[in-house]
Design brief:
eight-stranded parallel β-barrel, 19% strand, Glucose Oxidase, domain 1, seven-stranded mixed barrel, 1097 residues, alpha/beta, TIM Barrel
């Protein structure tokens, strides 16, 4: 930077960029950077100019005037500012600059007559602002501002409205946002008003909140400089504005983008004065060109900030008419346009961003008016050694709900829990008045510690309850254990500050100040999902700190059970392998709440209410309808209409809710798989939904009644199921969330499963359309006829539902187990036998088999080791038990490795090319051989395995290695010798034999030979049988890399573990492992051929 440039007092925004932060502050630098670098990407930023840090320091070098008295400018009503000014003047010689005077004001050791001046930070801040306002602008600076404003009028027209905004050199960094710390002035017209607003921006650097924030960041109030941006106003007072984050602001999930929107100028959204509409986008879907809006929530939007109807430069707050409150404030196309803009901004800066936007009501264009780094989740290097989970005992939560001790509900900010005594303040002026009264008491000799609780202002750990917060509240907010506001959304001031300080907050709670009492003890939980709950009384909770230790990689995949979509962004931050069970039931009960047939037949029901005539579609339900009071039914339909505003039809509401719930889960976890179980509410649960009594029978035992697959194909329920499928089809094909997998629950027979698959295929959701389909294994028939189910439904896998499996195996109702003297559970012998058999049968067919029931979560130290022993592919558990189950699996797998003496034998082994597979251990192979021998089907020791048996026998007895056989390209498979997993496998070019071709992979015994070199033998049956002694031309094979070896010019090293892999319809699967004794060149050969296990088993 040249010396001349250092003297510049203002710069056009298009002439500054990110490197100019020290000259024009973070806000101006970012605006200029986007104008210069992102205009070509469709980013629109209003034009304007910024005064520089040099201008700020020039102003601070001005002398402090003797008049007017700064205490008058500051509006001193208590006399405290005058007392402070008197002490300051004693330190001044009379010709000090503004900067020198401010240094004295903020000197903590300031004395008056030998006594330290006891003043509150707010008093010092008030005097500092008075000094700023009393000091005249340097003529050169005033001329520069007038010149810049004239250029703005030349561009946009005389008398154009401008926004005058602070841009401090210390704000909008990666570690601190300084959101809302400095003032902005809107709808400013004319040069004199701009000059006054400029001084107001500088004065705002010395508010109590800004000083407090700076001190919290370890900075002096005079650190840095204040630049001021003067830019063209975007007429969002005639349209909408809002805030967006390029990650989920509560969880930090980087897959998502959050957008808020409300009517009028953006200050109400930032301050939290209104509860805005909220939208979540899937970022990767946007990049792929999909309409990736995964969730939207309608906000109240009851107030709007607009230009004053009286003219001039003022703004005013107005009511929003009811019809606009019930409508979305921006269209889907505008949401997607904003999303694409935000992606371009994030990509340019290379970090998550916090962006303010505004739509011009005259032109219809969307402008970006600020972009700064997101600081809560992206601060520092992001590294952490522990995960902290806040939890209340679920049984306690259920009891409190049953006892009607839920006081309030609102939007949860963060995931923490707080408890304490309530302090209610209508606005910050009440706090100031209480502070003044307290100072009067202490000045009279009163001791603060002797004050009664009701006389105190706010104690550390109290619960702050107010209508909304502004930056003035921040010194108080930092002391709170919980913040509750009546207004605001997840991007309001209260929410942003609460996240930054790590304080739980519940916002948008209507009538909170009326429904709570001062000093009432409450507990507020943000750990229950996206709804924050306030309980009466102080209740125990705990914080679990789980170390993030990598440990030995697992061969058993650990997945999560997910119910509430609102929790999924946070749950997805756990290092899981995806979702093993996503329950639609939570979406149907909590987010829909209406029986789907009530929505399907809404118009027919309305017709019945008006005329008494039963439509043909409702004839199966005629008896129930005729028992209904038509006035009560009319009230029910009115309730449905009130729950479904903004939709073309009630049925569209159902589709949207299911789609958005499932899409949020899939987007949060993408690209990890999400296994969604199709709806499995029982008839008694459906009856509890709005309108459910019209369509549901009363069953004696709903647990084994009309549920699961039997519902889907029933003509009475199929119209409702079609809505569900339409929603799921839109998730996968419309939004492009290709990690969606589906699971059919409670399917009694393969024939029933075929009917379900036909319905899925009709919507492009079946196996023929590429959607992986799983079966909920929860009925004995699912185990005993596993092969038939797999073939009939073209299953990709199964998932054991231990909850229902217990009741169907033991013929008990799980809802009544407490009445049994010896209640069975998943640890009971018959259930364990069924689980083991299911794992073996599904595994033998090369498809995935997991478990998603509650058993591993309820008994994390007992069930997971048993499942690992069985060789299960995956275990799905509740998020709160994830780490405990993972540690149990790590111990079980380590024990299995130690028992077998090798690092390569793994239960649940999987192939790196993506095919789901698992390998059975030596013990299970022995059991199957014994069973086969008893049935007369046991394989003899010397029986040919298939066409590659000669090759296997030759290798087992120390012979030289065979050449790759025709039909396979030369390949090199890398095996991680520490974990035994395969990094990549070449596909065969041909496979024409009756016996599947395959790959024979052997890992060397770590105890002898060369332990770092695996053996890879390509085997095929097409073409003539190879001579076992033949050797390939080494020059025709790929050159080995580190830790890789291929049979070429040397014999294989000793072998301890053998894997046989075969191509299947959906890729390669590993379905045999044999534990072999160590032999090979240089080692003792087996005495008999039978001493080696037969790999065919």
């Amino acid at each position: 930077m040249s010396p001349t440039a250092d003297q510049t007092l203002s710069l056009p925004l298009e002439d500054v960029g990110s490197d100019d932060r020290s000259r024009v502050g973070g806000k101006a630098a970012s605006l200029g950077e986007m104008i210069r670098e992102l205009s070509g990407a469709g980013i629109r930023v209003p034009g304007g100019f910024a005064t520089t840090a040099r201008a700020f320091h020039l102003f601070l070098a001005e002398p402090v005037p003797p008049a007017p008295d700064p205490t008058e400018v500051a509006g001193d009503s208590s006399g405290e500012v005058a007392d402070l000014w008197k002490a300051v003047r004693h330190r001044l010689s009379g010709d000090e600059t503004l900067k020198e005077a401010l240094e004295v004001v903020f000197d903590p050791e300031l004395e008056d007559g030998g006594q330290t001046v006891p003043t509150e930070p707010g008093v010092r801040a008030l005097l500092a602002r008075g000094l700023v306002q009393a000091t005249a602008l340097p003529p050169a600076l005033a001329d520069e501002i007038r010149r810049g404003h004239g250029t703005l009028e030349d561009r946009y027209g005389a008398g154009c409205d401008a926004a005058v905004r602070s841009s401090a050199t210390v704000e909008d960094s990666e570690l601190a946002s300084f959101a809302g710390q400095y003032e902005s002035f809107l709808n400013v017209r004319g040069a004199p008003a701009v000059l006054a607003a400029w001084k107001g921006c500088v004065a705002s650097a010395f508010t109590e909140r800004a000083v407090s924030y700076l001190e919290a960041q370890g900075m002096n109030p005079l650190t840095g400089a204040v630049s001021v941006v003067v830019m063209k106003m975007v007429r969002s007072d005639l349209a909408t504005s809002g805030v967006l984050f390029t990650l989920d602001p509560d969880s930090g999930n980087p897959n998502l983008m959050s957008i808020t929107s409300s009517y009028g100028l953006g200050e109400f959204v930032v301050q939290g004065t209104v509860t805005p509409d909220t939208f979540l986008l899937w970022k990767e879907g946007l990049r792929r060109g999909h309409p990736a809006l995964v969730q939207r929530e309608l906000g109240a939007k009851d107030r709007a900030l607009i230009y004053s109807s009286h003219g001039g430069t003022a703004t005013e707050s107005v009511d929003v008419e009811a019809s606009r409150q019930r409508a979305w404030s921006i269209s889907t196309d505008e949401i997607l346009e904003l999303g694409r803009m935000a992606l371009a901004i994030e990509d340019h800066y290379g970090r998550p961003m916090d962006v303010e936007w505004a739509k011009d009501g005259r032109t219809g264009e969307i402008f970006i008016v600020q972009a700064r780094p997101e600081t809560v989740h992206a601060g520092g290097d992001g590294a952490t050694s522990v995960v902290r989970n806040w939890r209340m005992d679920p049984a306690l939560v259920d009891r409190l709900r049953a006892e009607d001790r839920v006081l309030l509900e609102g939007l949860a900010v963060g995931t923490r829990i707080g408890a304490g005594k309530v302090r209610i303040y209508g606005d910050y002026e009440e706090v100031i008045a209480r502070k003044r009264a307290l100072r009067t008491v202490t000045a009279a000799g009163g001791a603060v510690e002797k004050l009664k609780p009701e006389e105190r202002i706010f104690d550390e750990g109290d619960v702050l309850v107010t209508s909304l917060t502004t930056p003035d509240w921040e010194p108080l907010m930092k002391q709170a254990s919980l913040i509750i506001t009546e207004r605001g959304g997840r991007t309001s001031h209260a929410a942003i500050v609460a996240r930054e300080f790590g304080i739980p907050a519940i916002v948008g709670v209507q009538d909170a100040m009326q429904r709570l009492r001062s000093l009432q003890e409450v507990t507020g939980s943000c750990a229950e999902g996206d709804t924050g709950v306030v309980f009466d009384g102080i209740h125990p909770f705990h914080v679990e700190e789980v170390p993030l230790e990598d440990g030995e990689p697992l061969e058993t995949r650990i997945k999560l059970n997910v119910g509430f979509p609102g929790k999924s962004p946070r749950d997805a931050m756990l290092p899981s392998d995806g979702v093993g069970l996503a329950r639609l039931e939570f979406i149907l009960t909590a987010q829909v709440g209406i029986h789907p047939l009530t929505l399907v037949w809404f118009e027919e029901l309305r017709h019945f209410v008006r005329t008494g005539e039963v439509a043909e579609a409702l004839m199966p339900f005629r008896a129930a309808l005729q028992k209904e009071d038509r006035e009560e039914l009319d009230a029910l339909l009115g309730a449905v209409e009130r729950r479904t505003p903004g939709y073309d039809s009630p049925a569209a509401f159902f589709v949207d809710r299911v789609r958005s719930g499932v899409a949020l889960i899939c987007a949060s976890f993408h690209p990890r798989p999400v296994l969604v179980r199709l709806s499995d509410l029982k008839s008694n649960e459906y009856r509890d939904l709005l309108g459910g009594r019209l369509f549901e029978p009363r069953e004696e035992n709903p647990m084994i009644g009309w549920r699961g697959a039997s519902r889907y194909t029933d003509p009475l329920f199929e119209p409702a199921f079609q809505l569900e499928l339409a929603a799921l089809a839109d998730v996968r094909s419309g939004l492009g969330l290709d990690n969606l997998q589906l699971m059919v629950p409670f399917c009694r027979s393969p024939e029933e499963g075929i009917g379900v698959v036909e319905l899925l295929d009709h919507h492009g959701l079946g196996p023929s359309g590429g959607t992986p389909l799983f079966l909920m294994v929860e009925i004995p028939s699912n185990v005993l006829e596993a092969e038939a189910f797999i073939d009939a439904m073209s299953l990709s896998g199964g998932s054991i539902g231990s909850n229902d499996l217990v009741q169907t195996v033991y013929a008990v109702s799980r809802d009544d187990l407490e009445g049994y003297a010896h209640p069975p559970d998943a640890r009971s012998p018959a259930v364990r036998t069924m689980i083991r058999e299911a794992v073996e049968r599904f595994g033998a067919r090369g498809v995935e088999i997991g478990i998603c029931g509650q058993a591993p979560s309820d008994h994390p130290d007992e069930i997971p080791p048993f499942l690992v022993e069985c060789g299960i592919s995956s275990i799905s558990v509740t998020p709160d038990t994830f780490f405990r189950v993972k540690r149990a699996v790590q111990r079980a797998e380590a024990k299995a490795r130690g028992a077998t003496g090798g690092g390569a034998e793994r239960e649940g082994w999987r192939v790196g090319c993506g095919a789901r597979a698992r390998a059975r251990g030596w013990r299970r192979g022995q059991r199957r051989r014994r069973r086969g021998a008893k049935r007369g089907r046991g394989a003899k020791a010397n029986a040919p395995v298939c066409a590659f048996s000669p090759l296997l026998n030759n290798m087992l007895h120390g012979g030289s290695a065979p050449a790759p056989i025709e039909g396979f390209s030369p390949l090199l498979t890398k095996i991680h010798t520490r974990t035994g997993t395969v990094a990549g496998i070449s596909e065969p070019r041909t496979a024409t034999s009756d016996c599947d071709p395959g790959l024979l992979v052997a890992t060397p015994n770590p105890g002898c030979g060369d332990p770092g070199l695996p053996v890879v033998l390509p085997i095929a049956t097409s073409g003539p049988q190879a001579d076992p002694g033949a050797r390939p031309d080494p020059s025709s094979l790929p050159h080995p890399r580190e830790n890789e070896w291929m049979v070429g010019g040397a014999a294989p090293p000793p072998i301890s573990i053998l894997y046989i892999l075969r191509p299947r319809r959906r890729g390669l699967s590993a379905f045999h492992i044999a534990r072999l004794p160590s032999f090979g060149p240089g080692s003792r050969k087996p005495q008999t051929e039978a001493s080696a296990p037969d790999p065919s088993n």
